[in-house]
Amino acid sequence: MRIGVLCSGGDSPGMNAAIRGAVLRAVEVHGFEMIGFMDGWRGFFAGDSVPLDRRAVRGISPLGGVILGTSRVQPFLAGRGDAGDLQAIRDRAAEYGIDGFLLIGGNGTQTVAQLLTAAGIPAIGLPKTIDNDLGGTDYTFGFDTAVSIAAEAIDRLRTTGESHRRCMVLEVMGRDAGWIALHAGMAGGAQVMLIPEFPESIEQISEWVLSVRDRGRSSLVIVAEGFRLVGSDEQVTRDGLDGFGRKRLGGVVELLAPLIEERTGIETRATVLGHLQRGGSPTAFDRVLATRTGIAAADAARAGQWGTMAGLRGDRVEMVPLAEAVGRLKTVPADRYEEVRLTFG
Fold first, then answer.
1. Backbone φ, ψ for residue 206 (5° rounding)
2. Does residue 248 share a domain with residue 176?
3. Cβ contact 97:51 at 8 Å
4. Residue 90, marked binder
5. What CATH number should be reported for the domain holding residue 77?
């Protein structure tokens, strides 16, 4: 059997470990051939590929980024996913002699995997995204690293904030789901966590900040980039569009900080963590999870379990139908937010 591996969407810590786990299992145990496509679907259509064997993946687990590169190039050249698009992928796969795909990515990538499988083009998904917003799995690899980086930033901001009696506001990633803000805020002891799922008013936020001041402390507010104030219909955006044609988010912290300062009289400073959350070496948790995911995907290919994704359920990696993983984002449920919100201020 010959399997093609490609990555799509934003990079996420642990992708190299997933590739290594899949290659070692597939090549060394099952006797498969593996081929990797550079920069995702761009490499697939451009003929830019590399063989993947033990030597190719040696020592890559602790590395950040991804050796194959990734991109937001769409697999459907006509942009519709119609019969012509699918036939183009089928024909190109035949030229490579590929029997199936391992697709490493988030919701969009796993949706593509489902479409391919439904069209008779075998595919298995490996779930990565720092946002942890993909269904069918308790955690995606990359999330733990992003949370750890954000929590460290909170620790550092707290000391400087306390020294100057300032309110510090930190913006982290999270377009539609606030998992990073929630978990990093809990880990770092932030007094306020603002996430896209649950708008809050500037009056309430200011009340929390003043409550912290009245206890003799300095506030640390963590906000996801997709957060909206009560009464606002739009998320804060920057110029331009992202690779999916959506407005670029970012800068909500620049809106919040002056509003907080104006209403509380407390000097307030804003920090945007940005792409630091994606970079650097993955945590041990992400390396292990990604490796196990790769192994499970290779085993699933041998068993013919196409149309599935290697999801973490409790402490087990299980192959779940792609239909369970895609179609809707996994957002923070109300009870999870409420249990933390009661401690704000």
1. -65, -35
2. yes
3. no
4. no
5. 3.40.50.450
Is residue 131 located within the same domain as residue 67? yes
List residues with catalytic annotation. 131
Q: What residues are paired with 343 via a beta bridge?
A: none
Read off the CATH number of the domain in which 156 is found: 3.40.50.460
pTM: 0.92
129 labelled binding-site residue = yes
Token code pair at residue 260: 């907080």
Statement to judge: residues 60 and 13 lie in one domain: yes
Instruction: Place 299 in a pLDDT band, splitting at 50, 70 and 90.
Output: very high
What mean pLDDT do residues 139-160 have?
95
What share of residues in the chain are helix, strand, coil (percent, to 5)? 40, 20, 40
* Strand-pair partners of 51: 35
Structure-token pair, residue 172: 């982290």
Q: Are residues 257 and 273 in the same domain?
A: yes
Same domain, 125 and 42: yes
DSSP per residue, 209-261: HHHHHHTT---EEEEETT--BTT--S--EEEEE-TTSPEEE--HHHHHHHHHH
Distance, CA of 311 to CA of 297 (rounded, Å): 10
Pairing relation of β-strands 49-52 and 33-37? Answer: antiparallel
* Residue 223 shares a structural domain with residue 261: yes
308 carries a ligand binding annotation: no
> For residue range 79-125, what is the model confidence (pLDDT) as tens digits?
566 777 888 899 999 999 999 999 999 998 999 999 999 999 999 99
Q: Considering 278, 309, 338, which residue would you say is the last residue of a domain? A: 278
Q: Look up tokens 């070692």; give the residue.
A: 24
Amino acid present at 261:
E
Residue 337 within a domain:
no
Whether 174 has a binding-site annotation, put simply, is yes
- Give the single-character DSSP code of 67: T
Answer yes or no: do 197 and 207 share one domain.
Answer: yes
Rounded Cα distance, 228 and 224, in Å: 9
